[in-house]
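Per reviewer request, we include the raw input and output of the structure prediction for the construct analysed in the revised manuscript.
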Amino acid sequence: MEILKKLSSKFNVYLLKELTVILILSMGILTFILVLGRLGKMADFVINKGVGIKDILLLIAYSTPSYLTFTLPMAFLLSVIVVLGRLSTENELLVLKASGVDLKSLFVPITALGVLITLCGLLNANLFLQKNGELFKNTLINVMKKGISVEDKEGVFNDTIRDIVIYIDKVDAQKRFLSGVVVSDDRDKEVKQTISAKRGYINVDPTTLDLYFALEDGSLHRWEKSTDTYRSVSFNNYTFSMNLSAMIPSVGALRKKPYEMSGDELNTALKNAKNYSERYEIMLDINNIRLSIPFSSLAFIFLTIPLGVKRKIEGKFSGMLYSLLLFLFYYLLMALAENAGMAIHLPVIITSFLPNFIFVAMGFYLLKNLNEEEYTTVSQKLRYFWMYCLEKTK
């Protein structure tokens, strides 16, 4: 009840409103920036291959949870530093201190928001990420099949697959039965081959992404350019296949990552791991995505509050710059912790949470002088420290 009373105070409500606006705005912008990497290929599906807008929107929606894993804590970090920096710049925090308010009370609304973001991150990483990964895979395969569809194009030369031209005279869409099939294959620059068949079937393997033509009663004509040799073969049954990996935005999106696996799949992956390093990486990947990164929002609280409060007038975008640098530093710590943990055989849970522990320790150090007024900016302190180091090296 005491916490609820504190949250209901006018200043805390005001602070929560400011934080929420920046949080939603920054989360939307960061997620959109990450989605941009796939928009080019998706636009190609819409413009050149006739895939519907609905399918493209589904792909974007299903891929969003993987982006939210990173944008949720990053947006929270950005919102706290930007909002507290603005309050400090406009002397609102100075007024609070002059009124006898302990700035450590800022922890109440910010921690409440941080706990909410952490819960959302845990829910996203442990529930939505796994389910949406499967939905994304299935939708991507359907989009891919629509984009390179040959069974619904009668009497035309279809060149949507690179270096291959397919002609089909008649199509039975329900039975997937083809008649009058001609395939020109130029994938090998040294060999040109043409396959013709009176009838056949088509199928796409969703696991290997191989497109199969099961052809019957036809002939194969092959010209080997290097030796100028021509061969002609008649067949009763012939299977022609091609891999469609290059036709989709990202092949890696179709292979399940450790944090997308179910319990049985994870056990199988661990049993099939070739060595200790591979097993360690699998477990570390799971702990990072499902636990460490969602809990990073709580670790950021201890560091962002003193950095936001101490930040003076340094330009409108300095808060964004600090946030970006802190997030890069966090991922640098993750990489260093991974290498160190693997080298000295640290327990996976300690390795994954080590960057969070470091951020909390740094925050506690900076919180000691939170209520004291300083007249130097963070960038000035860094500059003084750099000059001090240069002097010591002379």
